[in-house]
Amino acid sequence: MKQDMIVILDLGSSENTRLAREIRELGVYSEIYPHDITKEELAKLPNVKGIIINGGPNHIVDGERIDVDAHVYEHGYPVMAVAHALATCEDVLNAWSEDKEERLAVLKKFVFDDCKCETNWNMKNFIADQVELIREQVKDKKVLLALSGGVDSSVVAALLIKAIGKQLVCVHVNHGLMRKGESESVVEVFKNQLDANLIYVDVSERFLGKLENVADPEKKRKIIGTEFIRVFEEEARKLEGIDYLAQGTIYPDIVESGTKTAKMVKSHHNVGGLPEDLGFALVEPLRQLFKDEVRACGLELGLPDEMVFRQPFPGPGLGVRCLGAITKERLEAVREADAILREEFHNAGLDKKVWQYFTVVPDFKSVGVRDNARCFEYPVILRAVNTVDAMTATIEQIDWPVLLKITDRILKEVKNVNRVCYDLSPKPTATIEWE
Ligand code: XMP
C-alpha cells in the first residue's frame, strides 16, 4: 500500500465516519480503529502519518470512562485530540467546530502541515494497489463470487476480473424475484462485455415452488435466504479447485460491527450470505471503501451508470414487495409496475435524486370498472423515500404530473391492476418496505 494514512482512534464519537470521509475527500487515506488498539497493532499499520483521537459526547461507555493508552503518544506520530479533554494530551482541541469551513481548515493544517501527508488517495491508486494485493493473495488459485448485480458485488467482480481474469468464477442466481431486465443486464455486462467466467443459474421455478402458499413475511424471507444459499452451495460443489470466496464487504459493514463504542446498527441479511462450511478463505477488496468510493471505483473500472448508481434493493427482492403468498400473476404485476416507475423516474430526472423507489402489490382485490364492465383486480402502491441511513425516512413529494403519468401507464399497461395509490408514510411509523 502506497497511501499515507491518518489513523482515527474511536472514543465513541458518532462522527468517526464523517471525519474519515472528510480526510479521504482531502485525498488522504484514513481508517478508524478502536481506542484500545495495542502498541503492536498500531506499529504494524502501514504508512501512518498521524493520529486523531476522536472522542465524542459518549466517551463514557456503559458508565465507564474510556481513554486511549499512553503508548499512542510514544510512536512519534503527530496526535490531535478533538471534542475531548485529555489529561495526558497537551495539544487538545477542546471543541470540534460545527462550522464546516473551520473544521476543514483545522483538519487541513493537521493533515498537511503537521503530518506532512501527500494527496495520494484516489481510485486509480486504489485499483492499482488492490490488483497487486489480489494477485499476491490468490496466486494461481480460483475465486468464487456470488454476483447479485448489486453495486458492491458488481464492483468486486470488475476489480477481480481486472486482477485475475478467468480465475474468477461468478455465479449469478436468478431467484425469479429480480426486477425486470436485471439478470439480463448482469449477463450482458459481465459475460458479453467483460468476458467473465459467469455461471448463470435460473431457479425461478424452484423458488416459486418453495414459496407457494407461504404468506408470512418472515417465513418468506427465511425460505428465500436458505434456498439461495443452497443453490449457491450446489453450484460451488460442482466446481473444482476453488480456494477463495470473494465478498462485497464495504467499510461501513466493518465499522458498524467492529468498534466497541459504535451503537448497534440494525443489520439486514443479504441473500448472498456466506456458506460457512465451504471452507473458503475470503477476498474482500472493497473492505476499506465507503459507498460513494465503491461507486467511483466501479466507474473507474468502466461499469455502466445503471449498475453503479443502482438504488438499494433488498436481498429477498420482489419477494418482500409482492405481499402475502406470492403468485405469478401478482409477481408479474409488481415487476411490470416497477419497470414503469423506474422509467418515468428516469425521464423526470428523479432517479438520481430519490434514494429508493419501488412498487408494492398487496394480496387483496377491489372493485373497479374496465371497458364499461365491473372488474375485480389488485392495486399497485407506489413508494419513494429519502433517507441517510435507512433508519428513518421521509417521502419524496413527487409532482402531480409525474404521479399521474405513472398511474396512467400502470393502469393501461399492467395486467390485473385497477388502482394506483401513493404511500405518504414516513419511517417511523412505517418501514421503507412493505412486507
Ligand atoms: P425497512 O423496510 O426495514 O428497510 O425500513 C430499510 C432498508 O433496507 C432494505 N432492506 C434490505 N436490504 N437485505 C438488504 O440488503 C434485506 O434483506 C433487506 N430488507 C430490507 C430496504 O430495501 C430499505 O432500503
From TrEMBL:
<comment type="function">
    <text>Catalyzes the synthesis of GMP from XMP.</text>
</comment>
<dbReference type="InterPro" id="IPR001674">
    <property type="entry name" value="GMP_synth_C"/>
</dbReference>
<dbReference type="Pfam" id="PF00117">
    <property type="entry name" value="GATase"/>
</dbReference>
<keyword id="KW-0067">ATP-binding</keyword>
<keyword id="KW-0658">Purine biosynthesis</keyword>
<dbReference type="Pfam" id="PF02540">
    <property type="entry name" value="NAD_synthase"/>
</dbReference>
<keyword id="KW-0315">Glutamine amidotransferase</keyword>
<dbReference type="GO" id="GO:0005524">
    <property type="term" value="F:ATP binding"/>
</dbReference>
<keyword id="KW-0436">Ligase</keyword>
<comment type="pathway">
    <text>Purine metabolism; GMP biosynthesis; GMP from XMP (L-Gln route): step 1/1.</text>
</comment>
<dbReference type="GO" id="GO:0005829">
    <property type="term" value="C:cytosol"/>
</dbReference>
<dbReference type="Pfam" id="PF00958">
    <property type="entry name" value="GMP_synt_C"/>
</dbReference>
<dbReference type="InterPro" id="IPR014729">
    <property type="entry name" value="Rossmann-like_a/b/a_fold"/>
</dbReference>
<dbReference type="InterPro" id="IPR022310">
    <property type="entry name" value="NAD/GMP_synthase"/>
</dbReference>
<dbReference type="InterPro" id="IPR029062">
    <property type="entry name" value="Class_I_gatase-like"/>
</dbReference>
<feature type="domain" description="GMPS ATP-PPase">
    <location>
        <begin position="121"/>
        <end position="310"/>
    </location>
</feature>
<feature type="binding site">
    <location>
        <begin position="148"/>
        <end position="154"/>
    </location>
    <ligand>
        <name>ATP</name>
    </ligand>
</feature>
<dbReference type="InterPro" id="IPR025777">
    <property type="entry name" value="GMPS_ATP_PPase_dom"/>
</dbReference>
<keyword id="KW-0547">Nucleotide-binding</keyword>
<keyword id="KW-0332">GMP biosynthesis</keyword>
<protein>
    <recommendedName>
        <fullName>GMP synthase (glutamine-hydrolyzing)</fullName>
        <ecNumber>6.3.5.2</ecNumber>
    </recommendedName>
</protein>
<dbReference type="GO" id="GO:0003921">
    <property type="term" value="F:GMP synthase activity"/>
</dbReference>
<dbReference type="InterPro" id="IPR017926">
    <property type="entry name" value="GATASE"/>
</dbReference>
